[in-house]
Design the sequence.
């Protein structure tokens, strides 16, 4: 008798492409400023956040000192759900500097709250990336205390 759990179709013989991974070493990055420091501090705590204007409700992301919609200065931080959909991406096989391990996939994610995040995709094979796919934030330290928000495909919990 054969193993009933055996897959119906034979597995491909070639090596499966690896899922995209976070960078393992420190990569070039912007330094936190007095305006953006709160964003990076919250990333280090595993929380994606954005600024909302108390005067007009507009979401400001990236962080700013003055609301991009009404020029108001009463901006407060709110927690994002961390979920969104993939807006655009590219897969890099020739890194800008040797610091980066390839492949990696810079991407723009449209968050459920409506703002965009420039990020990198992980946990998916480069050939399986699709526009509009649901994604969720996942945080990884890439060296010297820098924690970056990456995004991986979102799988809804069972029963939801
Ligand atoms: Zn405003």
Sequence:
């Amino acid at each position: 008798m054969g193993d009933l759990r055996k897959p119906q179709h034979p597995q491909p013989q070639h090596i499966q492409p690896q899922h995209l991974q976070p960078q393992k070493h420190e990569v070039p990055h912007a330094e936190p400023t007095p305006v953006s420091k709160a964003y990076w501090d919250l990333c280090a705590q595993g929380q994606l956040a954005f600024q909302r204007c108390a005067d007009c409700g507009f979401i400001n992301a990236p962080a700013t000192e003055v609301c991009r919609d009404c020029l108001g200065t009463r901006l407060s931080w709110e927690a994002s759900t961390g979920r969104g959909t993939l807006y655009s991406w590219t897969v890099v096989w020739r890194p800008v500097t040797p610091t980066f391990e390839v492949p990696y996939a810079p991407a723009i994610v449209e968050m459920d709250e409506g703002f965009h995040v420039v990020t990198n995709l992980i946990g998916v094979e480069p050939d399986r990336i699709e526009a509009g796919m649901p994604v969720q934030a996942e945080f990884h330290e890439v060296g010297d205390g820098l924690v970056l928000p990456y995004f991986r495909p979102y799988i809804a919990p069972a029963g939801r």
Q: What stands out?
A: The pocket of zinc ion is lined by residues 53, 55-56, 58, 67, 69-70, 72 (CB under 6 Å). Residues 37-44 form the longest helix (8 residues).
